[in-house]
Amino acid sequence: MRVSAIGCTALLLLAVAACGGRDTGEAAGGGTGGGTAASGQCAGQQTTGITDTSIKLGGIYPLSGPASAYGDIPKGIKAYFDYVNAEQNGIGGRKVEFVVRDDGYQPPKAVEEARRLVEQEEVFALFQTLGTPSTTAVWDYTNQRKVPQIFVATGASQWGTDTSHPWTIGWQPNYVSESRVYAQYLKKEKPDAKVAVLYQNDDFGKDLLNGFKRATDGSQVQVVAEQSYEVSDPSVDPQMRNLAESKADVFLNVTTPKFGSQALAADAKNTSWNPLHIVNNVAASVTVLQPVGFENVQGVVSSTYYKDPNDPIWADDAEMKLYRQKMEQYAPGADPNVPYHAFGWAVASSFHKAMDAAACPTREGLRDSVRNLQNVQVDMLLPGVTMQTGQDDGFPIESMQLMQFKGERWELFGDVIDTRKEFGPLTN
């Protein structure tokens, strides 16, 4: 995420409601999107897609294609919104309508769906566009239109280091910070590690790989082999064979779910290569590991920042109990044990907190609220993980905890690592 725009917007991120321009020509209550007229400090700001009783959001996900495993996320989001609509009178008295579109993990399709959501559906905001390529393809459009593109489902560092796209912001820990967590772990536990890396050949994969290299610079941890893949590739088996030849003692698996599962399976089959396997968070769901066979993924390491519904330590947790109850009630066909559902619940709850904190029920108000989050607690996040942003910090979540796969689930180990404190803030 690249934080705040220049001029009026950048100077006023912390003065939440002071900026009143409506450069798109949509006055409060104006346009065909409707909305009630704001008064005082909110006058003149955009209210397309929001009224006193409703708010319309649009999400773009790969419901089909090579990253379709992420299609579970909007199920968790919708369950949360259905719950607050039915039992809490919505968010601030506004019932939430969540419109989901499928881009098949194809950037041109993401642009097409973003235009449809903004111009035809007239949504208040894009809440979640999934994937670095799709979000990158869309963010020029949303920022030109001054439409919030909130809590995008990608950890690319550009969402927090860019200064020219103030309407776009991420949510999850960025990939550079995630890579720092793995680098710190290896420098302590395997200080002479030789690392082989498989990575997706786009900004997502390169962000994590380059962050890892920078974080290990000056240490004895070395990247000795690299192989990339394209999302259109049918398999990563050739790349895995090449990496195995390196005889590296650590394998860093920087993939999305389909290819993460393939890489895990290839690693399990190659009995002559037995590296410590680290899989990045976005491919660490049990739904990725299960097809490989849990017996074949024992000891795999990853990191996380939200509660895993499969972990019995949360059995008596109030938020986990609520999540399970409401998933059963409002998404009866969805398995609450799927972590991507819990991810969706957590990010929807985060949106709720951000909207409640907005000084104005406008697009400008939401834009400014998400950039002025002050240690906001979201109950589905791990204890010690909060949302924090500010004028010089556009990354809402920057804390993670390591986990290792044992038996049929992930087990947390070590302490929550606040990467802001451990490594300093990311800058452009």
TrEMBL record:
CDD domains: PBP1_ABC_ligand_binding-like (cd06343). Keywords: Signal. InterPro entries: Leu-bd, Peripla_BP_I. This is Branched-chain amino acid transport system substrate-binding protein. Belongs to the leucine-binding protein family. It comes from the Bacteria. Residues 1-20 form the signal peptide. It comes from Nonomuraea maritima. PROSITE patterns: PROKAR_LIPOPROTEIN.
